[in-house]
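ingest -> validate -> predict -> emit
validate: passed (alphabet ok, no gaps, 173 aa)
predict: started
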Amino acid sequence: MADREQPVTLRTRKFIRNPLLGRKQMVVDVLHPSRPNVSKDELRSKLAELYKASKDTVSVFGFRTQYGGGKSTGFALIYDSNEVMKKFEPRYRLVRYGQATKIEKASRQQRTFFLFLVMVAAERLGRRARWGRLDVACGCMLMMLRIGKQRKNRAKTVRGTAKTKGVEKKKKK
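emit:
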């Protein structure tokens, strides 16, 4: 018998209708005695069926399994419409449900390094920087050294199994 066919009981409590945010919010208790856990996707479809809503308007998060298993508790939001969900739901959860795309960013250190470069350029143009000239120069140099080391270490590693050059080097030793 597959895990998905095992019985699962959903119980909702602390149910609140929130008209300002256009949603119903509740705490969900999931009883799953013969299963290790229940997927969020399956919970979304069961809650949508239970409350006569579309699966796309249901958001579940924050599930913790009780010690010993068999019971999980989390939070669920059922929005009135898809537009309201996109307006109020955090972007990372919309990405999880496939309703938004993830924005790729550089690492935090690279972004702060860029900020330092902008400040140095502003100071060279004669505009006043937020910190003193010495602080900006020292901070910029430290960031350049740190990022240089990171890039060097990243270049050292061989990623993926399809790269034959890295494999050949290992075999020669």
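The chain has a mean pLDDT of 79.
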